[in-house]
Amino acid sequence: MDKATQDETPIESINYLLVQVARLHRARADMLLEPLGLYRGQPPVIIALHNTPGMTQGELATQLHVTPATMTRLLQRLERAGFVTRQSDADDQRISRFALTAAGEAIRMTMMATLRQLEAETFAGLTPAELAIMRQLLERLRTNLRARLDAR
């Protein structure tokens, strides 16, 4: 890190800018998804169950990197909304398997269109080359952070 970077005030740092962008993105996502009856954390669950119906709560929690307690709340809320159904495992009645309902599939289609709108708004004005560089950099940041989390 060079001297100029060390002397930056926190409000000018890349880290702070990244946090601001993430918060603004989350706020805009909330604004677009709440009218659909979807809330923070639910879209990845819907996508996972669309891709792999019949997953257990534990499998979903592991795949989405959330605690089992968080996944319980997400699934309960999705069940109450009528987007997800729970069925006992055929081999082990203690295990519940989850799948999207017809309403869940319908909301997924609307949700995906909404997420495409969010992506278009977020990346407006960036060239394909800039987007490719951004993707590479964000993937590297994710790898760096996951490695640190996994090492603990």
Into which percent range does the helicity of residues fall?
55-70%
Low-confidence stretches: none
In the CATH hierarchy, the third-tier topology is known as: Arc Repressor Mutant, subunit A
User: Helix tally?
Assistant: 7
Structural class comes to mainly alpha
The major pleated sheet works out as: 3 strands, antiparallel
CATH architecture: Orthogonal Bundle
What's the CATH class label? Mainly Alpha
Task: Return the average pLDDT rounded to an integer.
Answer: 92
Instruction: Count all strands and give the number.
Output: 3
Please outline what is shown here:
The protein is mainly alpha-helical and 152 residues long.
Molecular structure report:
- This protein has 152 residues and is mainly alpha-helical.
- It has a single domain, classed as Arc Repressor Mutant, subunit A (Orthogonal Bundle), CATH 1.10.10.
- Helix content is 66%, strand content 8%.
- Strands 1-3-2 form a three-stranded antiparallel β-sheet.
- α2 packs across α6 and α4 crosses α5.
